[in-house]
Write a structure and sequence with these properties.
The complex is a heterodimer of chains A (about 900) and B (about 80).
Chain A lengths: L6 E6 L2 E6 L4 H7 L6 E2 L6 E2 L12 E4 L2 E5 L10 E3 L26 H5 L3 H14 L15 E13 L3 H12 L4 E4 L20 H9 L3 E4 L2 E7 L3 E7 L7 E13 L3 E3 L12 E3 H11 L6 E5 L4 H11 L3 E6 L4 E5 L6 E4 L3 E3 L2 E4 L3 E3 L2 H5 L3 E5 L4 E5 L5 E3 L26 E3 L4 E2 H9 L5 H8 L12 H12 L3 H4 L13 H5 L12 H6 L2 E6 L2 E7 L7 H14 L2 E4 L4 E6 L3 H8 L12 E7 L5 E11 L2 E6 L4 H12 L7 E4 L4 E7 L3 H6 L16 E6 L2 E6 L8 E7 L3 H12 L5 E2 L2 H10 L34 H9 L4 E8 L10 E4 L2 E12 L4 E9 L8 E6 L2 E8 L9 H4 L1
Parallel strand pairs in A: 1-7, 8-9, 8-13, 9-10, 13-25, 15-21, 16-17, 16-21, 30-40
Antiparallel strand pairs in A: 1-2, 3-4, 5-6, 5-7, 11-12, 12-13, 14-22, 18-19, 19-20, 23-24, 26-27, 28-29, 30-36, 31-34, 31-35, 32-33, 33-34, 36-39, 37-38, 38-39, 41-44, 41-46, 42-43, 42-45, 43-44, 45-46
Helix pairs in contact in A: 4-5, 9-11, 15-20, 16-17
Chain B lengths: L3 E4 L3 E4 L4 E5 L10 H9 L7 E7 L7 E7 L4 E6 L3
Classes of the chains: A alpha+beta (about 900), B mainly beta (about 80).
Chain lengths: ~900, ~80
């Protein structure tokens, strides 16, 4: 009996509901007089409590903002906010129930028949979305923090805390195994908690299990999937006050499924009316919640099964009107609640119809895991056989203790459009018959056509009756008809739980705070945050800010944070040999103190990445990779190192080094004030590197020019990031230095026609077609991709990466289509307005025949076509003189 | 897909800690005929049964290892360091 000393209240649709300790949301609402708990998916028929065990779809509500929560297994908590779903304005008065009058227009599979033109779906969709369905998904911005994931490993997992599960757990634990016991109810004991004739809850076993340190009991958790390698998906409700659900990835060497059996309804007209309940639901009400489920009851049962529940009803003070056999019943009477029952011969008044239904082994997990379900005529059940290794079944789920409650297939099926088989999506016996007559007579096609077993209960309530109706109508046996395939999740799992907490890693460069104080507009680049551009008082738009930064670099000096570049330190006697093997360019002959650019190709000659490689010493190289490709490049290098026995050590120093690029005609003047290193072009030419102190910080300086001006990429320990950034800006103040962001950098490099791998190239780009033939050193005896590249070098190119300049002031977007003579001939990869040219310039892939110097192409801009011309050389300083100044 | 791979360094770990590297193949000699290179670059045996594969233990020891896996059952018979 429920504890009555502790009372509290919660809100339902703005109404205050009194609850007692031990109540579920459903039991408290039922005690308060609520009988309609949901409206059905399609017809908006009133639905009341049916199973009270979390198996059926009849009590799904919004609880504290989460939709589709089963009220019957959700403990009531003080102050919780519960709302109805899929009804307007209320559950008791749902205007949408008018849909039912048009049921002739919505026969089984009606959307396949009615939506024959695309306009018909467009016209119907908004209405269907409003009328049909379940709860409303919560605001994606909220609540996701309330789900969490956990990982567990155990020797044995027992699913189900009933008699068989408890015994199995104890036997395993006594045998020395570590055991996790999963049970979906608030308390252990299974049906013994409410079926008094079945025996008492084994309190001694439970106490013993609780006392054993090798046993972990997880209550209010259901196992929704049994996957390969005995991985169990377990969803635990309210693991603690801060979480709605916890998804446990439980790995077990052995799994014992002891999920028991559940009761399913009979089919007769109006069998979905509130007041028609399963016998186990009535027993739960009486014995778990101390609720008298009705005033006067009719029991529908085969034989002796009625006795047990009749005793329970009498004990609770319910008047027992009569006991009927299932085939006597024609219909439940009443409009929004049961008022009586109609048989072939008479009519009885009552407010409760109790169905002692067939018991079905809850074998979905075993079926998912690869076990077979075979029909057992004597048991009246599909029982699990041929279980996979390390998975076993115990108790009622094996079907061993079950007996047939009715003839199967049924001798008579009441084909009627209000005789429901599937409560999830309002599929009636008449719908099944119509589906079969339309040719969907295989159980799997019937399932897909009618949506039988496809709703939130995943076939729990409907599968047996559906198979029975199908067998009856097609004249086959139950075994011949067979079961539909069970797939996870069983039962449903909320998407929030699958997604888990949103822990997206964010990487910030060492200069992050300094950027933030300079008015940075941020952009995401993989996990990194990078300054897109800096807002300043003198500019009004992104374009004007970017142009200011651009002019600073072209005319004076600019500074950009390039700490996000992937950085690999490669050391060892054979380092040059490895780089020669993996990169297309040659590195074994690179002199210490020099830098060389290269791409990285796969064996098919596709460009995977690019970067600069500096030789710091005879056996020491420093590689930069594109920001997003670091892990890939490191793994790629290590892969080709496997089994060679070469002396090479690759260290990822990305996080340990900060880096800036100081560029512009005054860059030397700025840097000169911070270092004693000779920066003259003679001592420190283009594509050279030096190790020197900058503002007292040990640094590696690379004289390279991604943006096309005299400049130095300075790599130094990350802990000096903000210090050096600030020092350089201070030193540059007299030259009106500007920090610049990714947008300005992209514009600057585009004027120089420098390619960004992954933006201007894709999974079909080889160096020849990308205009970088010089980077492939085919005279090396071997390197990754050499064979394919040597063939591509001689092949007629299919397409080419070319530069273009617009004929007028149109500015296309990245990705715009290119037409030549009215036919699609390529696409733009990068394009920006170039202040230098006064027009937009860009890079584009075009078919080879169009890729000739000076050729005219058409680019789609804002829906119309604009002319452009192909330009062979860089748009800015084609000779590269400024880089060498 | 939720099988375990017995990493020779780290022991039994979830497949989600690993990056798949494909079938283990023998790279042709640089001067091998084009057909052999085409076969190596583009053709996969796609064995329905036990095959030797590359795996990289991304969330573990960060080593490339090889494993014998039955592709029809996802049973990993053995995982080892490449020779």
């Amino acid at each position: 009996m429920a504890d009555t000393s502790d009372r509290f209240s919660f809100q339902f649709d703005g109404e205050t509901i009194e609850a007692r300790s031990g109540d579920t949301v459903a039991s408290a609402l039922y005690r308060a007089g609520r009988r309609i708990f949901t409206r059905s998916f399609k017809y908006h028929r009133p639905r009341g409590l049916l199973c009270l065990a979390g198996k059926c779809p009849n009590c799904m509500m919004h609880v504290d903002g989460t939709p589709n929560v089963r009220a019957c297994i959700t403990p009531a908590r003080a102050g919780m906010a519960v709302r109805h779903q899929n009804a307007y304005p209320s559950l008791d008065h749902d205007w949408l129930a008018a849909v039912q009058r048009f049921d002739r227009l919505m026969p089984v599979g009606w959307y396949y028949k009615a939506m024959t033109h695309k306009w018909s779906w467009h016209a119907a969709e908004p209405f269907i979305r409003k009328v049909a369905g379940l709860g409303v998904a919560p605001d994606p911005g909220k609540g996701s923090k309330d789900y969490e994931h956990a990982w567990m490993h155990t020797e044995a997992a027992v699913i189900g805390g009933g008699r068989a599960g408890l015994q199995a757990a104890l036997d395993l634990a006594m045998g020395g195994a570590q055991v996790v016991l999963i049970d979906d109810q608030p308390e252990l004991g299974g049906h013994l908690r409410y079926r008094r004739r079945a025996g008492a809850v084994p309190a001694g076993t439970i106490a013993q299990l609780r006392s054993l340190p090798s046993v972990e009991i997880i209550s209010r958790a259901h196992c929704f999937g049994l996957y390969e390698g005995n991985l169990l998906g377990v969803l635990q409700a309210n693991p603690h006050a801060g979480a709605i659900e916890r998804l446990i990835h439980l790995r077990a060497k052995r799994v014992i499924v002891a999920t028991g059996a559940y009761e399913v309804p009979f089919t007769f007209q109006n069998n979905d009316l509130p007041g028609v309940m399963l016998s186990t639901a009535v027993q739960r009400f009486i014995h778990l919640h101390g609720i008298k489920p009705g005033a006067s009851a009719v029991i529908v049962a085969n034989g002796a099964q009625a006795d047990e529940v009749a005793d329970d009803l009498r004990g609770a003070g319910v008047e027992l009107v009569t006991v009927l056999a299932p085939d006597e019943v024609i219909a439940a009477l009443g409009s929004s609640h049961v008022t009586g029952i109609q048989t072939h011969t008479s009519r009885f008044a009552c407010d409760l119809i109790v169905m002692c239904g067939q018991r079905v082994p809850d074998a979905g997990l075993l079926h998912q895991a690869g076990g077979k379900l075979v029909w057992n005529q004597e048991r009246g059940a599909f029982v699990p056989v041929d279980l996979p290794a390390n998975v076993s079944a115990a108790g009622e789920v094996t079907g061993a203790s079950l007996s047939r409650a009715m003839p199967l297939p049924p001798k008579h099926v009441p084909f009627h459009k209000r005789s429901f088989v599937c409560f999830c999506s309002d599929v009636s016996t008449a719908d099944l018959r119509d589906g079969i007559r339309e040719g969907f007579d295989h159980i799997e096609t019937l399932k897909r056509y009618t949506t039988l077993t496809m709703g939130p209960c995943q076939g729990k309530m409907c599968q047996l009756a559906g198979i029975g109706a199908c067998a009856h109508e097609t004249g086959r046996t139950m075994a011949e008809t067979g079961v539909t395939t069970a797939r996870p999740p069983n039962p449903s799992v909320s998407l929030g739980a699958l997604a888990g907490a949103r822990h997206h890693p964010i990487r910030r460069t060492p200069m992050h705070d300094a950027h933030d104080q300079s008015g940075t507009v941020w952009m995401d680049m993989g996990e990194w945050k990078r300054p897109r551009y800096y807002k300043s008082a003198s500019c009004i738009s992104e374009r004007s800010c970017v142009e200011e930064e651009y002019r600073a670099v072209r005319e004076r000096v600019g500074l950009i944070d390039v700490s996000t570049l992937g950085k690999l330190d490669v050391k060892g006697r054979d380092a040059g040999r490895l780089l020669d093997k993996v990169y297309t360019n040659r590195f074994s002959d690179l002199k210490p103190g020099r830098v060389r650019y290269s791409v990285l190709c796969d064996e098919a000659g596709i460009v995977l990445d690019d970067g600069t490689i500096s030789r710091l010493a005879e056996d020491h190289y420093f590689i930069t990779t594109t920001t997003g490709n670091l892990d890939f490049v490191q793994q790629w290098l290590e892969w080709w190192l496997v089994g060679t026995g070469w002396d090479v050590h690759i260290t990822n120093v990305t996080g340990g080094h900060a880096a800036v690029n100081l560029a512009g005609p005054r860059a030397r003047d700025v840097l000169k004030t911070l270092t004693t290193c000779d920066l003259s072009s003679k001592a420190f030419p283009y594509m050279a590197c030096r190790q020197a102190e900058v503002a007292g910080v040990p640094a590696l300086l690379l004289r390279i020019g991604f943006v096309g001006e005299t400049g130095w990429e300075i790599h130094f320990p990350a802990e000096y990031g903000e210090y050096l950034w600030t020092k350089v800006l201070e030193a540059g103040e007299v030259f009106d230095i500007r920090p610049f962001g990714v947008e300005a950098q992209r514009l600057l490099r585009l004027e120089k026609r420098h390619v960004i791998v992954g933006v201007d190239t894709d999974a079909l780009s080889n160096p020849y077609e990308a205009g970088m033939a010089w980077v492939a050193k085919l005279d090396k005896p071997d390197f990754i991709g050499r064979n394919a590249l040597s063939r591509q070098a001689e092949a007629v190119p299919q397409q080419s990466l070319v530069g273009f300049i617009m004929n007028d002031d149109a500015v296309p977007q990245d990705g715009a289509a290119i037409l030549v003579d009215g036919a699609l001939a390529g696409r733009v990869t990068s394009t920006r307005y170039s202040p230098k040219n006064g027009k937009a310039v860009g890079l584009a892939w075009v078919v080879a025949k169009a890729a000739t110097e000076g050729a005219e192409i058409q680019i789609r801009v804002n829906g119309s076509m604009a002319g452009a011309r192909i330009v062979p050389e860089a748009f800015y300083d084609p000779a590269g003189e400024r880089l060498r100044m | 897909m939720s099988f375990l791979i017995p990493c020779p360094h780290c022991g039994n770990r979830s497949v989600y800690e690993f990056r798949f590297g494909g079938e283990v193949k023998v790279r042709p000699q640089p001067d091998a005929p084009a057909a052999e290179w085409m076969e190596y670059s583009y053709t996969k045996a796609n064995e329905a049964g036990v095959q030797k594969e590359w795996w990289f233990h991304r969330s573990g020891c960060r080593q490339w290892i090889q494993a014998l896996r039955n592709t029809t059952t996802n049973e990993v018979l053995e995982a080892f360091f490449p020779e």
